[in-house]
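sorry to bug you again but im stuck and you know this stuff better than me. below you get a single protein, a line of residues and a line of whole numbers that encode the local backbone shape. mainly i need to know what kind of three dimensional shape the backbone takes. anything you notice is useful, everything is just below:

***
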Amino acid sequence: MSQHPPSPVVLVTGAAKRLGREIALALAAGGWRVAVHYRSSAQDAVETVAACTRIQGDSALFEADLGDENAVKALVPSVVERFGQIDAVVNSASTFEQDDAASFSFAALEKHLHSNTGAPILLAQALHTHLASRQARGEKPVRGAVVNLLDQKLWNQNPDFLSYTLSKAALEAANTMLAMALAPQVRVVGVAPGLTLTSHLLSDAQFEALHKLSPLGRSSTPADVAATVKFALENQSITGTTLLVDGGQHLMKFARDFSLMTNHT
């Protein structure tokens, strides 16, 4: 009797809460074994692992500071040690701190570049190395994917969150270069949400009003983004491009970041 291959394994960074958690749960529901990464939200991460395990049967917790190069380099080997393999990475974690042209500093840019750009590139590199080693051992076909969470801000720029936006623009450019460099083993796809979840900077009323500011009358929901990530991971013909999931918000001109548009109530 032939044995079924093990379920694929995906590492989701920033999966303890918010959008990363929604992505982890959607992938678990789709049959993926989920490696839940977190930095400091330990209890939330434990709850995400428990929820994924109830859905799929196998999930595990991985702590790492994505601003620490050594910690990032150890992440994929840790996932492989726990699950025996890794097949995909979803880079959902992001540093998101406000600065602008007046307050910009090397330190702010470096902080964002390390976690938002450098870490995803290192994780893609590690995934490719792992898949190549599996292929060298005779396992075929060996294919994987990286999904990088971007932002509709890249197609609708404003002067807020300068270092964050620069780090995401660099990651969007890296999508193209990595897709070329890591093929055919690894596909690289961007997913760019619009305003999806509220924050401490917005009241519920402000969020609801801003969420409606799009050609479709609604921006992205967590379910929309998670479904798109799942699609990008599983569609074998997509690489080197970005899927915008924002209700068309990138088609509209906003002078400020959503979190600073507090006059829309």
